[in-house]
Every structure is written in C-alpha cells, then in structure tokens.
Specification:
The structure is a single chain. By secondary structure, the protein is of the alpha+beta class. It has eight helices and four strands.
Length: 191
C-alpha cells in the first residue's frame, strides 16, 4: 500500500507540477452547519426539521445510545477504541434530546482534535449557568446554527410562527433552545 501511495505522489509531482505533503490530514466530513445540511440534503436526509439522528449515524458514523445518565447530565460524547459514541439522557424530552445530539456533534466537530482534551465530553444541563466554558458555548452555538439555520428561523417568524412555543414546535426543539437562538440572533435581550 505504501509503495502504491508513493507511486501516486511521484506521478503527481512529475506530471502535474504539485507537491503532495508528506502528512495530509484531510477530513471527509462536513465541518460547518451549512455543509452538514447540504450533505444531508444530498443523501436524502430530512432537513426541516433536520433529522439529527440520521445525520449523526449516516454522515458521521457515530453511535447513539439513550441511557439513564443522571438528572443533571443531558448527554456526552465519548471515544471508545477507534469509534465515537453519543450518549443522551433517555429521561429528557425528544425535543431536548435533539439539541443534545447536535451539541455533542458540535463537540465532535469542533473539539475532538484539541490537544490535551480527554476522550469524553460530559455536559451538564444546557443554558443553566453563565459561567459555561468556551467549549460548551461553542457547542451550543453550533447546535443552534445546525438545527435552526438563521434564514429558516427568520422565515418561520415572518410566516407567523412568532412565539417561542410555535418556534419550538416548528423546529422540534425545547423552548430553552429556541430562546437561546433568538438571543443569539439579537431578537431578544436575554434567555
């Protein structure tokens, strides 16, 4: 295999006038909410509301487990051998689980390769504390952007889904997640 790779590198260097870096770390996975939505659409995965279960399983090959993980834990991401798994609290509502899954996917995309990170991200209940770590804030923002894209969110409001409850029902998310997104977009002053 290594010989074949070296032959391919030599072919490109000799015939196309480019150099292939010795160590190439190319991710085949989408990295942004927009890229994920586009990939989901290409694969025929439902995008409104986004079928986050299918996205995680089909695009990222991450296993999902629903389990009783305690009252104060919504979910966590963990690496087991060479694979990743997301655990969500089975006692949460389906709407809450959707945000938890997107939040954990955010950790997978944004934080899994940060040096000195542990092999697991355990998350307390979201939106409860102003002292939330930067990584938790990033994962929350990622999840909100993925599950409630700005254009879709604003269009829903314009089309008459202009209360927190109506938006929560439309996007199949908790009212806390919808308030967070409205705050993030500057539509409300606090959440």
């Amino acid at each position: 295999m290594a010989t074949n790779l070296k032959n391919i590198e030599n072919f490109f260097e000799e015939n196309i006038n480019i150099t292939v870096p010795a160590s190439t770390n190319v991710s085949l996975y989408p990295k942004t909410p927009d890229e994920i939505i586009k990939k989901a659409k290409d694969l025929g995965i439902g995008i409104f509301p986004l079928d986050i279960y299918c996205v995680i399983k089909k695009i990222f090959s991450i296993k999902i487990y629903e389990t009783d993980i305690g009252k104060d834990v919504s979910g966590f991401l963990e690496k087991i051998g060479n694979t990743w798994a997301i655990y969500v609290n089975r006692n949460e509502s389906e709407y809450r689980k959707r945000f938890t899954l997107a939040h954990e996917l955010g950790h997978y995309i944004l934080h899994r390769e940060i040096p000195n990170n542990s092999l697991a991200f355990r998350d307390q209940i979201f939106f409860r504390d102003e002292n939330t770590s930067p990584q938790e804030k990033e994962a929350n923002k990622f999840a909100a952007n993925l599950l409630m894209p700005q254009d879709d969110f604003l269009k829903a409001i314009k089309d008459g889904d202009n209360t927190i409850l109506k938006l929560a029902d439309k996007f199949k998310l908790s009212t806390a997640a919808v308030r967070y997104r409205a705050y993030q977009l500057g539509l409300i002053k606090s959440y």
